[in-house]
């Protein structure tokens, strides 16, 4: 009994265009920390007498320098292209990821809570994340990096739809 | 109490100290010894006992509960008074548990679940008859029986009498020694106890044992150890199985909101768990390695509102019994026997790579060990890495084939079925109506192979059922077929034509 293969279509909405800059700035903080550690490692290697650990420390330093680079350059652009979301009267669908790819669908009739969150850096950019939770800890959908106004609209729309479905959501 | 508020049973005062003593034996002993050596043991003993009794009295003094027309309310807490409330029509499960102390005093712990995990109500403890009355009132809906007062007669369950679904058969004991997983737990426990006596193990003793081993016939010693281990393990496993599952009965009763499932078992600690059958969202049939070879399996149900949301309904027992009970619980025999769709050659390749990678790790470990032994001045066993390689590769090939053959999924009218396992074969059936979301994930390697990991989110059991390494198109098709309403809006229109 093999079903004919199907594909999910791309959700219709993009996240805020400001998200790419936000992701870059966020990555910059991580990169600064990683590079600081890398500099520390290099200084250590140069100061202490070399031993069998020296090549390992060099390797670690190189890894720390290289790893943040994609997140600063190409990753935000790819993420922006991939990240999509859509809310219908029946369900929420989000797609995200830049190396791995994830699709999440949650039916609104099973939604238990709808909330939105905004970290300090997100506030600077006027972005907001909407989070939809069900009775399962694996049935959680986050629509990341929406424009503040859009996020408020989505929350009130989701609350209106879920309030209209009286099931106990399990 | 006014307004129908009732206390826990006074016998709680006797059971609580034992529970506390059992739970905090080590700190209690440490405190006893510490205080005792300071002020003398004659004084410390009554002080310790008084302390334990006083702490044990707190729950009885501070916990009260009542049933109103619509709610069950429990108030508790010494400094932070909290009131937990559960709507009666949301009560989905009642769990009664009584260990030996409780049973001697004829009291039992009561845990009430509402299907939402955060709002479980625990009452430790109530009189056995009172607890039964509460259970009947909560699940069979005659709240007058409790709120009117404790002295009323036991309310009879409405509707038909309990219908027996399964009961323990002593011939099932033959599966008990085959649960090797339990052997590992037992060995870990023995190891933990033995490590308490490491003061007695010094290098002199180790050396004398080593010398004795060198002098004796090694294969003989290993053989005798194995036989002795077997002789000890078989009765221990049987006794453990018997103690845990003594008097197992699974029955169906008529509750106020539909049928309920009730499971009673236990020789010393007796447990009676009742769940609304509508909240049973699926089953897990597991054939662990040796039990499976001997034609056995065990059965769990996926449910909500219990402390353990994946409780055993049947311990290791014949597969035919497991399947008939599971079919009875699900109301769908198809979900247990429907042939699983395999995931194709790319999934087989994935399984092969997975196990060959593990074989590689084993060989690498052998190389490192050989090198390390050399640096410690022992003769390098150069034969070790090739031997490990020769042994590990065929094992990996067999394991990969087994893993691939056991991987699959199926859809029946109401259930999504996922089959997994290498040594242990697991078949999980989840009610499509219990699916509260989908996650379709592809890692970088998944994308290269065109495979996906499909997760069905649910409130029941482990809260997810995974269909692993399934071709992407097939994964979407499964999700769309299991929950058409949820997924159909996100399919391209030409695909859905």
TrEMBL record, chain A:
The keyword Transmembrane helix applies. The chain crosses the membrane at residues 21-49, 55-75. InterPro entries: YdbS-like_PH. Keywords: Membrane, Transmembrane, Transmembrane helix. It holds the Pfam family bPH_2. Signal peptide: none annotated. Residues 83-154 form the YdbS-like PH domain. PANTHER family: TRANSMEMBRANE PROTEIN-RELATED, UPF0699 TRANSMEMBRANE PROTEIN YDBS. This is YdbS-like PH domain-containing protein. The lineage of its organism: Bacteria, Bacillati, Actinomycetota, Actinomycetes, Propionibacteriales.
Automatic annotation (TrEMBL), chain B:
Keywords: Membrane, Transmembrane, Transmembrane helix. Residues 60-135, 404-479 form the YdbS-like PH domain. The keyword Transmembrane helix applies. It comes from the Bacteria. InterPro entries: UCP026631, YdbS-like_PH. Coiled coil: none annotated. The chain crosses the membrane at residues 12-33, 39-61, 180-201, 221-243, 359-376, 382-400. The keyword Membrane applies. PANTHER family: UPF0699 TRANSMEMBRANE PROTEIN YDBS (PTHR34473), UPF0699 TRANSMEMBRANE PROTEIN YDBT (PTHR34473:SF2). This is Putative membrane protein. It comes from Nocardioides terrae.
């Amino acid at each position: 009994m093999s079903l004919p293969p199907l594909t999910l279509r791309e959700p219709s909405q993009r996240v805020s265009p400001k998200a790419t800059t936000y992701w870059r700035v966020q990555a910059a903080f991580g990169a600064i920390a990683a590079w600081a550690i890398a500099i520390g490692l290099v200084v250590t290697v140069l100061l202490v007498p070399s031993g069998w650990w020296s090549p390992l420390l060099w390797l670690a330093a190189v890894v720390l320098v290289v790893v943040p680079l994609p997140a600063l350059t190409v990753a935000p652009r790819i993420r922006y292209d991939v990240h999509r979301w859509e809310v219908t009267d029946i369900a929420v669908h989000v797609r995200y990821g830049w190396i791995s790819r994830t699709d999440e669908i949650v039916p609104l009739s099973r939604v238990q809570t709808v909330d939105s969150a905004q970290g300090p850096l997100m506030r600077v950019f006027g972005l907001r994340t909407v989070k939809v939770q069900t009775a399962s800890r694996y049935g959680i959908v986050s629509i990341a990096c929406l424009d503040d106004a859009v996020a408020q609209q989505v929350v009130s729309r989701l609350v209106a739809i879920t309030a209209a479905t009286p099931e106990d959501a399990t | 109490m006014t307004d129908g508020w009732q206390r826990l049973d006074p016998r709680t005062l006797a059971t609580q100290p034992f529970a506390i003593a059992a739970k905090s034996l080590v700190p209690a002993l440490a405190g006893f010894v510490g205080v005792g050596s300071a002020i003398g043991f004659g004084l410390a003993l009554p002080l310790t006992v008084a302390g334990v009794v006083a702490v044990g009295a707190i729950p009885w003094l501070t916990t009260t509960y009542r049933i109103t027309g619509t709610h069950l309310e429990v108030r508790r807490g010494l400094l932070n008074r909290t009131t937990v409330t559960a709507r009666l029509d949301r009560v989905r499960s009642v769990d009664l548990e009584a260990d030996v102390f409780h049973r001697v005093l004829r009291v039992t712990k009561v845990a009430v679940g509402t299907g939402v995990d955060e709002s479980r109500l625990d009452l430790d403890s109530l009189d056995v008859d009172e607890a039964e009355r509460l259970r009947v009132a909560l699940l069979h809906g005659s709240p007058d029986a409790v709120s009117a007062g404790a002295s009323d007669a036991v309310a009879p369950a409405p509707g038909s009498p309990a219908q027996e679904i399964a009961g323990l058969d002593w011939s099932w004991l033959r599966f008990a020694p085959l649960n090797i997983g339990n052997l590992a737990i037992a060995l870990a426990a023995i190891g933990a106890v033995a490590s308490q006596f490491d003061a007695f193990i010094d290098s002199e003793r180790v050396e004398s044992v080593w010398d004795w081993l060198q002098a004796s016939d090694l294969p003989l010693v290993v053989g005798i150890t194995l036989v002795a281990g077997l002789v000890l393990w078989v009765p221990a496993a049987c006794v453990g199985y018997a103690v845990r599952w003594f008097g197992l009965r699974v029955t169906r009763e008529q509750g106020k909101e539909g049928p309920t499932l009730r499971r009673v078992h236990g020789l010393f600690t007796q447990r009676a768990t009742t769940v609304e059958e509508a909240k049973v969202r699926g089953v897990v049939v597991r054939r662990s390695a040796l039990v499976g070879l001997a034609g056995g399996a065990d059965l769990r149900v996926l449910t909500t509102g219990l402390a353990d949301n994946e409780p055993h309904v049947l311990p290791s027992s014949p597969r035919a019994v497991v399947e008939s009970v599971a079919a009875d619980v699900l109301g769908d025999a198809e979900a247990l026997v429907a042939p699983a769709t395999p995931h194709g050659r790319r999934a087989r390749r994935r399984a092969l790579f997975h196990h060959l990678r593990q074989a590689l790790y084993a060989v690498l470990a052998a190389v490192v060990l050989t090198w390390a032994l050399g640096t410690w001045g022992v003769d390098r066993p150069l034969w070790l890495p090739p031997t490990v390689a020769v042994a590990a590769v065929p094992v990996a090939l067999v394991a990969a084939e087994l893993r691939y053959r056991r991987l699959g999924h199926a859809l029946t009218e109401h259930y999504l079925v996922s089959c997994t396992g290498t040594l242990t074969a697991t078949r999980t059936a989840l009610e499509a109506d219990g699916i509260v979301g989908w996650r379709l994930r592809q890692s970088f390697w998944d994308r290269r192979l065109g495979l996906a990991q499909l997760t069905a989110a649910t409130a029941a059991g482990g809260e997810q059922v995974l269909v692993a390494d399934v071709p992407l198109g097939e994964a979407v098709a499964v999700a769309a077929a299991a929950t058409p309403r949820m997924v159909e809006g996100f399919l391209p229109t030409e695909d859905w034509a």
